[in-house]
Design goal:
With 1982 residues, this protein is α/β, with parallel strands linked by helices. It has 55 helices and 52 strands. The strands form 11 sheets. Strands 32, 33, 36, 37, 38, 39, 40, 41, 42, 43, 44 and 45 form a 12-stranded mixed sheet that branches. Strands 30-48-47-49-50-52-51-46 form an 8-stranded mixed sheet. It starts with 13 loop residues before the first helix and ends with a strand.
């Protein structure tokens, strides 16, 4: 074709291109420039690019630029002064934005066009300008004149000749050189409505800029993979897009592509073969396609026409970043379509006028080709298929992928002037072919991988734009998702193939077939493209079928059909023709349940019989059944296991054990001596981490209760009940019951003793989710409805199992029950039902429509987080990630591996039986392997040497470990082998088959075979049951094991069936987890991880499983030599060409089986120690006898101590062999490698019984293994000299089980995606959900569980058959159920124990919530003698004022909170000798409390929410919450000397309690009732509660305490706390104290309450008078209540057992007191403080009313007590002071002893919490009481504490020094005039009032030891003081506000006559002058 194909060399451009190429190479330090000639050869004819961007579009654009060279700085010319510089306006200030000018009529000069300019500062709009059309390109991007001519459409200025000048005028504000190609972006035109809109993109061709070069292009011989720059794969994204040239094809350039393919020599160098030492991920070379064909070039060296992708597939597959879009047809709702119906149902974006022609499927297609082709629909309609359509499958997976990759998310659809475009059809087809080319011969295409390739390509082409959008949307790691920061990319895909820049010219449909041929040519015949010679898809399909029938596609896996015709859209489809691929895809099209149905159908119709017969035949070794029959006949003579193959010496050495080994388990069990000291069962223990998770669950429940949503009122529940829902598996059900019985939860919930928790009682709390669950849950709903005080927890365990929508599930399927029951309206709306979902795989419940709030998710602490160390765990969790890690560590044999020999046998049979399901074939082969291995290992088959080649090494090793483990333990503990067979029918067949072989071999008592059917109970033989009972020491004769956990240490094969595991836990004796037959078709994260989760394990922390199992490992179980026949042969073969031993072959510890026996026997002639599978080793050993194993005594005459683990041992070619690294300290069986000609004396071993090693080759490792197995339990092991071998089970529990996987799954699971996570994590999470968009980031390795949850919530949507699909509410972004939690944690980690413990602590917490700590202290200071006088009768209802006046006033303080204050002197009282007996230790302990259950009349704090309280707390439908107003209230008081302004905060709902002025609405007064008013539902007295620091904990919710009665409750708060109290109590009236009281004490609050109340009483009387009513009738009482009064009690004196107390409401207490007929005669009433011993302490409480001090809860008559004020300055003892003054004024004080108040202990806030801090630091400091005062004018440390408080504290703590004569001198008290101060517990105070007519005690004849005068008023005179007599040396203390008043007081009272003063006796409080210190003077009596 020559150059005519695409154009001629354009010589005129040569210099320019050469210059650009040189410049580009100079500018870039890593990027290889594109050869000049490849730029110049072609100038193709192509339509516009998608978005019209030029080649150098973003060349200098900073937005995406991260190139290595700094951009050339560009400085714009500064704008002229005074001009407009606003974006979107020109310098003349006129608007240029398209949005503004769209409707304006614009004057466009002739020859000019309107053009839209892209401004970097206004990405969302365009600027309008007019440009001369001559300087713009035509539609082909050509013929634009150089230069510019434009006009401004804003101000009309014309004639701009330079684009630089014009860009300045329109304020583009660029940081780079202005270029018209970059900023003139769109044509503008007017639509039908005449509105100016954006039109087509201006298709600039990039002739004028520097050409950019794609990174790492393999130009002719320039860079091979070996020479590849090391950082190529880790370039920043910008390096590719900005510093790279991307060709018009939208594909990166490649320089050396051929023009034609004359003889197949010009394969597309899309991948290079990695050198053997570099086969790790990401070594793929970075190459691509140049869209313009160039002249033929030489092929890149290192490529051969046959180089298919298989050489790279191993490494690249491991790095597939796959987020599956649709991982099976089921996931996107499409089913495999019957081919005959396809024609009519096809849809195309361009419907064809004529019907598509049909295609006839040839007859006998399956029979002839032995495959069923799969047709992937692609672009365009698929022709109708006719004829033999049943033998062709059609899938729409690929089509769905294409569509989803082109459906841009909404966020990108309106991206301003530069719309982001999806991938073109041609690009998708090319990428698809590239992907298929990379696949290995056995790999199956995954749509997920292809989707990721599309996404990667699209992202890189729009890197800068995407970044602007997605950085703020996603977690912190988001930026990494779009970068190409890791070398591990998509499978074999050239790096830059992912980076085509859409701004370039796209691939045209005419070029596509040729480019596709080119792309496919590198893989030989594996991918065939039919494109150039077919006119329609029908023709291509017909050709394909013809070639298939003729056998021309024998070596072809994929045929890609491409139809391109001028003027029509490109059409395509892919026909899969590879046998393996067709089978896998066909099986993947069915859902798991359909797959199981198909398997059952095949089994029931008998089509598998031929396969079974085929497998039974062992070739020339005979038929398996006949060999077994002969063995059965011979087995009449007893033969211990393994004996038949042993040498006579071995047999003699072993005879010491043979009698024991031949015992039946029953005999063993009955032998008491044979016990194993190492056996222990630990699954009953609760581990610290489980406790921590239980607490996390509890804290989440509390968070729901504490939130303001009122969704859960924990305070209203008094008990917990629960129901645990489990999947319909009998074992899971019994396992949960077992955990429940042993957890003690039922005891915690009450009513059950430990002994009485029977199986039946526990089963009542667990239900299987089958048809029986309906009735159980219905009854629970009924219970919940009737028991509103019980909190019901529905625990939905294994919550991912049934997520089917009830409306989509048939009743017989058993699915949809969870949706029907848990999502029902009754459960959802019940306020006392809380649902806890528990699952290992929460992804299914984390979708866009989830019902669970992200805040209600609890994740198990990760093993990698630092938190785990805090729990002091004795165990370490070993799960899926640790299994994966073991495959990468290389330090030992991986715990997870595949079995190559099994895979090769299964593959061969799959080709032989194309109609059979692969699971049937694989299961048959596997069971055959187990049967043969049993025959070989049992030793009962003569000539068993020939059997080994009919099984695999892995299977043989499993069976041998199973058979021999029990022999090493005196109690015969052994291992469990798990065989996972999902199909119930296949599992039953496997059980029958294995049981028969076991019976025929006489091994029935050696191990058990258990069929694990989820629908049936566990069945095991009686002898094994007896064995377990002996181990577990169970005496119950009827006991049988119900769970797998109880099979601990039982040697058994467990065949676990069922479509998926249903939560069954496995014992720690699980040693092998055989998953070789699980299906590889359903690649969902949940499916894969729950199968792998079967092997999850808790390992004792002391042992580090992957590294060092320790010296006690059994020799039996070596795994090292298996490397020669399993796992990763090809990869390691490439990696290790340079060393005979790979790293993983170094003799090291096996994590699952102990120390290695020795090095694998290796031939010195085989260069690779791991080459090939069993077959390969067999073929390589045809020419030489297998190497024999040597005993250590012969190989090594002088056994040496074992070298360290890392010793590198090389295979030797001379007769001597090095000692190998062993973990045993003793010499063990060693392996020696020798030339084949060498002969040495050999002991008889299995490998020597072969008649002819040449004709019956055996893998060398197998012969080695047999010898070690057969002799290991004899005396050749150093341990065998002891009578009992150590327990193999005990060693096994410290090592996780080994996992065997299908090869396909192994490759997928062990691969990592580009984020470094295992590939399976990026699969679709579950078949019931779909990805919301293909345009999603990958999961990141750094994501926490919470971030993963948010990821799935953003990017997955449920299918219509998912139960959450209906959870959508219009107009709401979230529709979370408020009482639903999700606990997630890895499998087998202990979630059941955690949630059971949670139920227990929740129950205990509810009990605790219903209890409260009440001060429970006995009254103090009662004299021993009881009063003999009874004043009131015991049944008196109310106090009689006359009787009360005859009662003496009790001056003594009895409240225990005042046990450290000064006693008040009264004549009749004598303190006991020991005082109040305050023990020294009690000083430091908190006061005595009792925990009391809350009654229904309790007061509550802000944490209480219940439905009844809603309206009370402000949730009133009539009023908006928080709707309240602030009202000022002013009154004058003489004591304060000024007007006081108070503020009331009054909620709208409480305004009726106040009167307001009309008009104006000024607050006038608080309404008071009349004395005569009475209502049974209201309280007349306003309740005032002073409070500080207790906005959350104060008990202000009196709704229940008042029993619903209406009452006026006012909180008295300090100004600075106003906001926080208003926030927590929005519906309470607040009285805000003036600012001056911010630092005041409780005295100030009570003072203001009392004075305000009296002032209000006067106002109300005036208001009543004005209204014509009687003034004196207004109710004069108010209540002063403490903020910690929680409950109230009344004494029932008529109880038969004597007086008792019972809880009553505050309403009852107050209504009783208010109803007292003579209440107006009392000045102050109160009630006593509750004490648990209050009614039992003698006679003192028998008097129903008493007269004495009152505290905490007071009913105050503000009218009678108007002249006695609280001391506003007081901080302490203000109530004692007030009561004394009130009594001295002659008023009656009465305590109602029939009522008591309970005070709650509140540790936070309150008026008693005072902090003494210094003025300097303002932080609490330890300042002693002696420093509270100082001498006046001294330089002392001033304190930032009120002066009054300092004085009170000083007098309290230092009174012994101040009043030395008063200490412990009750008969000589300190005289205190008109006030009471606490002078400490050792000083007694005698209170006297100086007021005339006051009531004082008789002081005649008394001698006082001191005199205290504080702020004396005019009533205190010198004459008054002369009435009292003082001791000589008595102390005087005079306190005043300042020094002058102090002196005046001394002179006025003539104190100097009797008292001596010194200058040093004057003091002040330690306050600065501005803080107004108090002064006092002391003196001595003369």
């Amino acid at each position: 074709m020559g150059n005519s194909y695409a154009g001629q060399l354009q010589a005129t451009r040569f210099e320019e291109v050469l210059h650009n190429s040189i410049e580009a190479s100079l500018r870039s330090n890593t990027i290889i420039p594109r050869p000049v000639f490849s730029q110049l050869y072609l100038e193709t004819e192509q339509p516009l690019a998608h978005d019209g961007r030029t080649e150098n579009d973003d060349e200098d654009d900073e937005e995406g630029s991260e190139s290595n060279s700094p951009p050339i700085p560009y400085q714009m010319k500064p704008p002229p002064e005074g001009c407009c510089t606003t974006d979107g306006f020109c310098q003349a200030g006129r608007d240029l934005r398209l949005s503004s000018l769209a409707s304006d009529s614009l004057d466009v000069a002739p020859g000019f066009m309107l053009v839209g300019i892209k401004s970097p500062s206004l990405p969302e709009t365009l600027l309008v300008c007019a440009v001369d059309r001559r300087f713009l390109p035509d539609e082909r991007g050509r013929n634009a004149l150089l230069g510019f001519s434009g006009n401004c459409m804003g101000c009309g200025e014309k004639g701009f000749r330079y684009f630089t000048e014009f860009s300045n005028h329109i304020n583009l504000k660029l940081s780079s050189q202005p270029k018209k190609q970059k900023h003139l972006r769109y044509h503008l035109y007017r639509n039908n409505q005449g509105v100016l809109v954006k039109g087509a993109t201006i298709s600039w061709r990039g002739h004028d800029g520097r050409m950019r070069h794609i990174g790492s292009i393999l130009t002719e011989g320039q860079v091979t993979t070996e020479e590849q720059p090391p950082n190529l794969a880790t370039q920043t994204p910008g390096s590719y897009t900005v510093g790279s040239h991307v060709d018009p094809a939208g594909l990166p350039q490649i320089a050396d592509l051929p023009q034609s393919l004359p003889n197949g020599n010009h394969a597309v160098p899309s991948i290079t073969q990695p050198p053997p030492n570099q086969s790790g991920p990401g070594r793929t070379s970075v190459i691509g396609i140049h869209a313009n064909a160039g002249p033929p070039k030489k092929r890149h060296k290192g490529w051969s026409p046959e180089s298919s992708a298989s050489s790279v597939s191993e490494s690249t597959l491991k790095t597939l970043p796959s987020s599956s879009a649709v991982s099976s047809t089921v996931t996107n709702g499409s089913r495999p379509e019957p081919a005959a119906l396809l024609g009519s149902s096809q849809c195309s974006s361009t419907p064809l006028s004529s019907p598509a022609p049909s295609v006839t499927v040839p007859n006998q297609l399956l029979h002839t080709c032995r495959l069923q082709p799969v047709i992937f629909k692609g672009h365009g309609p698929l022709p109708q298929l006719t004829g033999n359509v049943s033998e062709v499958l059609v899938s729409s997976l690929l089509q769905s992928c294409y569509l989803s990759s082109q459906a841009l998310p909404r966020v990108y659809q309106h991206y301003g002037p530069s719309p982001i475009q999806p991938l073109s059809t041609e690009m998708q087809i090319l990428l698809t072919i590239y992907y298929l080319v990379q696949l290995g011969p056995d790999q199956v295409p995954l749509i997920e991988d292809l989707e990721q390739i599309f996404m990667r390509s699209w992202r890189e082409s729009h890197l800068s734009e995407i970044r602007q959008y997605q950085q703020p949307q996603t977690p912190a790691t988001q930026g990494r998702h779009y970068a190409i920061e890791t070398p591990s990319t998509l499978p074999g895909l050239p790096q830059h193939l992912c980076l085509p820049h859409q701004s370039q010219q796209p691939v045209t449909s005419s070029q596509l077939p040729w480019l596709a041929q080119l792309a496919a040519s590198s893989c030989g015949e594996a991918v065939v493209v039919l494109g150039e010679h077919i006119r329609s898809l029908a023709q291509g399909l017909q050709q394909t079928f013809t070639k298939l029938m003729e056998g021309q596609l024998e070596n072809t896996n994929y045929v890609v059909l491409i139809v391109t015709a001028p003027g029509q859209e490109t059409q395509s489809c892919v026909v899969v023709t590879g046998k393996h691929q067709c089978r896998a895809l066909a099986e993947g099209m069915f859902s798991p349940s359909e797959g199981l149905k198909e398997i059952n159908h095949q089994l029931s119709t008998g089509v598998g019989q031929e396969l079974i017969h085929f497998c039974n035949s062992l070739g020339q070794d005979g038929d398996m059944d006949s060999i077994l029959d002969s063995a059965t006949a011979e087995s009449s003579e007893p033969s211990p296991v393994f004996s038949s193959q042993e040498s006579p010496e071995d047999r003699n050495l072993k005879s010491t054990h043979s009698s024991k080994d031949s015992q039946s388990p029953k005999e063993r069990a009955s032998s008491p001596k044979e016990t194993c000291s190492e056996y222990s069962v630990e699954w009953r223990e609760v581990r610290p981490i489980q406790l921590a998770v239980a607490r996390k669950l509890l804290s989440h429940v509390c968070a729901i209760a504490d939130s303001s949503t009122q969704n859960l009122d924990l305070g209203s529940f008094d008990r917990v009940s629960f129901l645990i829902l489990v999947p319909p598996s009998e074992v899971t059900f019994q396992q949960t019951v077992l955990h429940l019985r042993s957890s003690g939860v039922l005891q915690d919930l009450g009513n059950l003793d430990q002994e009485s928790v029977s199986q039946r009682e526990a089963e009542h709390y667990v239900v299987k989710m089958d048809q029986s669950a309906q009735a159980r849950i219905d009854s629970l709903i009924q219970e919940a409805h009737s028991n509103t005080y019980t909190l019901y927890i529905l625990v939905h365990d294994h919550a991912h199992w049934d997520i089917s929508s009830a409306s989509y599930s048939s009743s017989d399927s058993g699915l949809g029950l969870v949706d029907q029951l848990l999502n029902s309206r009754q459960v959802r709306d019940a306020p006392n039902i809380l649902i806890l979902h528990v699952t290992s795989f929460p992804f299914t419940l984390q979708t866009q429509y989830t019902r669970i709030s992200p805040y209600n998710e609890i994740h198990w602490p990760s093993a990698f987080s630092n938190d785990v160390d805090l729990y002091h765990e004795k165990t370490r969790y070993f799960g899926v990630s640790e299994l994966l890690e073991s495959t990468r560590s290389g330090s030992s044999l991986p715990l997870m591996r595949h079995d190559s020999s099994f895979e090769s046998m299964a593959s061969a049979l799959e080709e032989r039986f194309p109609k059979l399901h692969s699971v049937v074939i694989r299961t048959t082969v596997l069971i055959q392997h187990y049967c043969v291995a049993l025959m070989a290992a049992s030793g009962r088959i003569g000539g068993s040497h020939s059997l080994h080649k009919h099984t695999s090494v892995e299977t043989l090793e499993i069976v041998q470990a199973l058979l021999t483990a029990a022999q090493q333990c005196p109690a015969h503990h052994g291992h469990m082998v798990l065989l996972r067979i999902p199909s119930l029918a296949l599992a039953a067949w496997a059980h029958r088959r294995l049981s028969r072989v076991r019976r025929q071999l006489g091994l029935e008592e050696s191990f058990e075979i258990i069929l694990g059917n989820p629908n049936q109970a566990l069945i095991i033989g009686q002898i094994f049951t007896d064995q377990i009972k002996t181990w577990l020491q169970i005496q119950d004769s009827d006991w049988i094991p119900h769970t797998y956990l109880e099979l601990e240490a039982l040697p058994c094969i467990l065949i676990l069936s069922g479509a998926e595991p249903l939560g069954e836990s496995l014992p720690r004796s699980l040693k092998y987890c055989d998953l070789r037959v699980i299906s590889c078709s359903y690649l969902h994260r949940t499916t894969l991880e729950q199968e792998l989760g079967l092997a999850a394990y808790l390992v004792r922390q002391e042992s580090q499983p992957p590294h060092n199992p320790g010296p006690g490992s059994d020799l039996l179980e070596s795994d090292a030599e298996k490397l020669s026949s399993t796992d990763n042969e090809e990869e390691e073969a490439q990696e290790n060409d340079d060393s005979p031993l790979s790293s993983s072959q170094q003799p090291q510890s096996c994590p699952d089986s102990g120390a290695l026996d020795a090095l694998p026997s290796q031939s010195s002639t085989v260069p690779n120690a791991q080459k090939g599978s069993v077959d390969a080793v067999q073929s390589s050993s045809q020419s030489q006898p297998p190497f024999q194993s040597q005993l250590s005594s012969q190989s090594f005459p002088h056994p040496q101590p074992v070298p360290h683990l890392q010793t590198q041992t090389q295979v030797q070619t001379h007769p001597q062999a090095q000692p190998t690294s062993q973990l045993h300290p003793q010499p063990q069986i060693q392996s020696q490698t020798q030339p084949s000609s060498q002969t040495l004396p050999q002991p008889q071993s299995l490998s020597q019984v072969q008649p002819n090693p040449q004709t019956q080759p055996l893998p060398t490792s197998q012969s080695r293994r047999q010898h070690s197995k057969s002799t290991s339990s004899g005396s050749l092991s150093p341990r065998s000299s002891s009578p009992h071998l150590s327990c193999s089970w005990a060693r096994g529990v410290s090592r996780p089980p080994s996992v065997l996987l299908p090869r396909a799954l192994y490759d997928i699971i062990t691969a990592s995606d580009s984020s470094g996570l295992p590939r399976c994590t990026s699969f679709l999470p579950h078949m019931s959900v779909a990805w919301a968009s293909s345009f999603r980031p990958l999961l990141s390795k750094m994501m926490t569980c919470t971030e993963q949850s948010l990821y799935y919530r953003q990017w997955t949507v449920p299918h219509s058959y998912h139960m959450d699909s209906s959870n959508r509410t219009e107009g709401r972004s979230d529709n979370f159920h408020p009482r639903r939690l999700l606990l997630s944690g890895p499998p087998q980690v202990g979630k059941t124990g955690a949630y059971l413990h949670f139920l227990g602590i929740l129950s205990r917490m509810l009990i605790r919530l219903m209890e409260v700590d009440i001060y429970d202290e006995e009254d103090i200071n009662y004299s021993a003698q009881a009063e003999g006088v009874q004043y009131h009768s015991l049944n008196a209802t109310w106090p009689n004022p006359d009787i009360m006046r005859t009662m003496p006033f009790d001056y003594t303080i009895h409240d225990p909170k005042y046990d450290d204050i000064s006693a008040v002197y009264s004549p009749g009282y004598r303190p006991s000798a020991e005082g109040n007996a305050v023990r020294q230790e009690d000083v430091y302990l908190r006061r005595r409390t009792s925990r009391i259950k809350l009654s229904k009349y309790a007061a509550y704090n802000t944490y209480h929410h219940c439905e009844q309280c809603h309206q009370y707390l402000g949730f009133n439908p009539r009023y908006q919450m928080y709707e309240s107003t602030l009202h000022a209230f002013t009154f004058t008081h003489l004591l304060l000397g000024e007007e006081i302004q108070l503020y009331f905060i009054i909620p709208k709902s409480k305004e009726h309690y106040f009167s307001f002025s009309q008009p104006g609405g000024q607050l006038e007064s608080m309404r008071l009732p009349l004395i005569s008013d009475w209502s049974p539902d209201s309280i007349k007295s306003p309740i005032f509660t002073p409070t500080t620091g207790r906005h959350e904990h104060g008990l202000f919710n009196l709704y229940h305490a008042m029993d619903g009665a209406s009452h006026l409750h006012i909180l008295v708060i300090k100004e600075y706390e106003m906001a926080v109290y208003k926030k927590y109590w929005p519906n309470h009236i607040m009285l805000v104290l003036p600012t001056i009281f911010n630092g005041a004490g409780i005295g100030a609050a009570h003072f203001l309450i009392k004075e305000l109340s009296y002032h209000n009483l006067e106002l109300e009387r005036s208001r009543r008078l004005e209204g014509g009513g009687p003034a004196g009738d207004v109710w004069p009482f108010v209540i002063l209540a403490d903020d910690s009064c929680v409950m109230f009690n009344a004494v029932d004196r008529d109880a038969p057992i004597g007086p008792t107390e019972h809880a009553v409401s505050l309403k009852q207490v107050l209504q009783h007191m208010e109803a007292c007929p003579d209440l107006a005669q009392f000045g102050l009433c109160g009630i006593r403080k509750w004490s648990s011993r209050g009614l039992t302490a003698g006679n003192r409480q028998r008097e129903p009313f008493s007269r004495g001090h009152l505290h905490d809860f007071l009913l105050l008559n503000v009218d009678q007590s108007q002249n006695i004020q609280y001391d506003q300055n007081r901080f302490t003892c203000h109530d004692v002071d007030f009561t004394l003054r009130l009594h001295s004024a002659g008023m009656l004080v009465c305590r109602f002893n029939s009522f008591s108040v309970m005070k709650k202990q509140i540790a936070i806030g309150g008026y008693r919490t005072f902090i003494i801090k210094t003025k300097m630091t303002d932080v609490p400091t330890s300042v002693g009481p002696s420093q509270y005062v100082c001498a006046p004018d001294s330089k002392h440390l001033f304190l930032a504490t009120p002066a009054q408080l300092l004085l009170e504290k000083y007098l309290h703590h230092t009174s012994q020094k101040l009043f030395p004569l008063s200490t412990k001198n009750y008969t000589h008290p300190v005289l205190s005039v008109d006030c009471y101060f606490n002078l400490g517990p050792e000083v007694t105070v005698c209170f006297v009032s100086s007021r005339p007519h006051s009531v004082n005690i008789s002081t005649t004849g008394m001698l006082f030891s001191g005199l205290l005068l504080c702020f004396t008023d005019s009533f205190v005179t010198a004459g008054f003081l002369k009435k009292f007599t003082f001791l000589k040396g008595a102390t005087l203390c005079v306190i005043s506000a300042d020094r002058s008043s102090l002196r005046q007081t001394v002179s006025r009272l003539e104190l100097e006559e009797e008292w001596r003063f010194r200058l040093s006796d004057e003091f002040q409080t330690a306050n600065a002058k501005e803080d107004r210190p108090l002064f006092f003077l002391t003196g001595k009596h003369i």
